[in-house]
Amino acid sequence: MLRSMSTALIVRGALAVIVGIIAIAWPGATILALVILFAVYAFLDAGLQAVRGFSSATAGPVFGHLLLALIDLAAGVTALVWPGPTALVLVLVVAAWALVGGFLEIFAAFADGETAGTRALFIVAGLVSVAFGVVLFARPGVGALTLALLFGFFELSYGTSQVVMGVQARRAGPGIAADPDGRPLSRRGS
Fold first, then answer.
1. Which pTM was predicted?
2. d(CA 90, CA 3)
3. CA-to-CA distance for 160 and 30, rounded, in angstroms?
4. Strand pairing partners for 186?
5. What are 132-185's pLDDT values in tens digits?
6. According to DSSP H, which parts of 26-139 are helical?
7. Residue 7 has pLDDT above 50, yes or no
8. Of 18, 71, 150, 183, which has the fewest CB atoms closer than 10 Å, so is most exposed?
9. DSSP 3-state helix, strand, coil percentages of the chain (rounded to 5)?
C-alpha cells in the first residue's frame, strides 16, 4: 500500500515539476494552453446544457438551457479564433476575483470575535489580493505572463513537495503499521 502511495506521490510530483518548468520556460504557451482549456470547458458545458435542455419536461428550462448552450459554444469558438483577447478577458476575470476577494477579506477582519492576530492576517492577505487585482487591471498583458509564471513556480514547489513526501513515505514504509484503511497506526519497534 505505502509503496504504491509513495510511487504515486513521486510520479505526480515529477509531472508537476515538468509542467512548472514548461510554464516558466514558455509562459506564452502556458497562456495559450489555458485559453484552449477554457475553450474545451466551454464546448463540454455547451453539450451538457444541450442535453439538459432536451431532457427537460417544460419549455422554459429547454429554452434557457439551449440559450446557455449557444453562449457556451460561442465562447469556445471565440476563445479558439481570438486567443489573445480571450487571455486578456481571463486575466481581467482573475483581477476582478482578486479585488473582490481582497475586499471581502478586509471586511472579514472586522467581524466580531476575531483576535488581533487573525485581524492582521485578514487585512494583510486582503491588501495583497487587492494590490494583485489592481496590478492585473493596470497591466493585463504583463498580468497574463505573471499568471503563467506564478503557475509555473507553484507547480515547481508543489511538485517538489510531492516528490519529497513520496521519498519520505517510501523510506518510512516498512516501519509503519497501518489499519485496514491505510492510515498509519504506530511505528514498529518504537
1. 0.60
2. 40
3. 20
4. 177
5. 889 889 888 888 888 888 888 888 998 898 899 888 888 886 554 444 455 555
6. 27-55, 59-81, 83-108, 116-138
7. yes
8. 183
9. 85, 5, 10
